[in-house]
Amino acid sequence: MAVPGEKRPPPPTPVSGGMARKLILALFVFLSAMLYKQIQPPPPKIPGTPGGPPVTASRTRLSDGRHLAYLESGVPKEEAKYKIIFVHGFDSCRYDALPVSKELAQELGIYLLSFDRPGYAESDPHPARTEKSIALDIAELADNLQLGPKFYLIGFSMGGEIMWSCLKYIPHRLAGVAILGPVGNYWWSGFPSNVTWDAWYQQLPQDQWAVWVAHHLPWLTYWWNTQKLFPASSVIAYNPALLSEEDKLLMPKFAHRSYMVRIGDMPQIRQQGEHECLHRDMIVGFGKWEWSPLQLENPFAGGEGKVHLWHGAEDLIVPVSLSRYISERLPWVVYHELPTAGHMFPLADGMADAIAKSLLLGDDQ
């Protein structure tokens, strides 16, 4: 109730249309800035820089100033008859090379070079990475370590997909190639829709979304795979639903790797941050390529080498459908489908030696 003689405060002045628009614009800018901050990945912790992890590996400097960390095994390269570069897969590093036995390496004279792909472990990140740039990195790595004009390549999983890039961009450097359980890009041209959709729907729904975002909205990939509102990539999360029966038996060999020394709360392979390794892999691997493996020509038309493609029929991580179709369309690819194997078949007893012998000596050996 009003008290007689008491002065009431004046009513607020109505907000003019111009002032309302300014307030709405300011709120929009504020919310946009907050959203932008949420979707931007943190800067990578580059090895050997202030605040970054220490450098413990042997490294070589590329022409653009980046460094690649590498690991040599087998016989000394000066004594080697066969020189192989191994390209690791998703969420892995130089220590995850094909486990060729010491006995076979000595018997055949195998020198094996593995390296951390850009952004993994102790190799510098490459924010401008493309499906072409990694092939050129491999050629420069071979030159820096003086492997000679030609070398063999073996790539697994995401590293297997990179083999197609090497066949396109550096075929003149290759003596032979083994492609193991390669990741496929669902937007590659030339694949019938039934083949692509068959492979697509073999993924878990959350992986369909994660891959779709990496292809169509690459700038959102970091946020998508770090938010907690709904499930992100099950591959990053190591969802056991992705393991075949044989993979379940082999997974301990992969999960209990001796080099998995933790730096803070991050395994060594992710120590620069997940964006420059895992998310960048997804952006490039499932990105918009201007070409397809189906357009490749035989780099060994003279019979001086072979391209071998291996895939497990029970692979629940990388569907076999795309590899099958590639092998049908490219008759120069020697296709090995393993009927009961999953994705981790290179770790099975004796399989690494079988893959190496097939590549170096032929399937008749």
Characterise the protein shown here.
With 365 residues, the protein is α/β, with parallel strands linked by helices. The chain has helices spanning 17-39, 102-108, 133-144, 158-169, 193-200, 205-216, 221-224, 245-255, 274-285, 321-329, 351-361; strands at 58-61, 67-74, 82-87, 110-115, 151-156, 174-180, 262-263, 266-267, 307-312, 333-338. The strands form two sheets. The chain has an eight-stranded mixed β-sheet, with helices on both faces. Strands 7-8 form a two-stranded antiparallel sheet. α3 (133-144) packs across α4. The longest helix has 23 residues, at 17-39. The radius of gyration is 25 Å and the shape is globular. The model is unreliable at 262-266 (pLDDT under 50).
Strand content: 5-15%
Radius of gyration: 25 Å
Structural class: alpha/beta
Span between N and C termini? 103 Å
Summed over residues and divided by their number, the pLDDT gives a mean of 90
**Coarse shape:** globular
Number of strands: 10
Oligomer: single chain
- Total DSSP helices: 11
Q: Report the biggest beta sheet as strand number plus sense, adding barrel if it closes.
A: 8 strands, mixed
Helix % is 25-40%
Strand order, largest beta sheet: 1-2-4-3-5-6-9-10
Query: What's the helix-strand series?
Result: HEEEHEHEHEHHHHEEHEHEH
Poorly predicted residue ranges:
262-266
Topology:
Layout: H1 17-39, E1 58-61, E2 67-74, E3 82-87, H2 102-108, E4 110-115, H3 133-144, E5 151-156, H4 158-169, E6 174-180, H5 193-200, H6 205-216, H7 221-224, H8 245-255, E7 262-263, E8 266-267, H9 274-285, E9 307-312, H10 321-329, E10 333-338, H11 351-361
Parallel strand pairs: 3-4, 3-5, 5-6, 6-9, 9-10
Antiparallel strand pairs: 1-2, 2-4, 7-8
